[in-house]
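Reply to dn_fold:

You asked what the input looked like. This is it:
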Amino acid sequence: MTPARMTRQRAAIIDAISDGDFRSAQAWHESLRGAGSAIGLATVYRTLQSLADDGDVDTVVSESGETLYRWCAAHTTHHHHLRCRSCGTAEEIDLPSFEQWSRAIASARGYTEIEHTVELTGLCHACSTELDH
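and this is what came back:
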């Protein structure tokens, strides 16, 4: 697969998402527009999907079914997330026992080349504290 060309729009999107939490393409678009960019929503969607396909952007699906995107700090290794349902803050988590379990289950049933997605959601400490007050 040929790497995507670094356009002005692609660079602006990468810059915008490089240190943010999970947000929808529409929210990233609004952020870019708020910063003065004239980039179109379709360009944001296409670029985020391309970045996700390349492993540079993490995606998760919200409770409403909307795909959320975030720059992937660890895009060189397989990883999972613990994400706050309220504010979108996310942490990358290591699940070695899950990885072993999933390989064993697949192997026992004759499956190979296993892929999976694990997403844990909850309320972060800050959001939990807000609810208590």
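The two ends are 52 Å apart (CA to CA).
Hope that clears it up.
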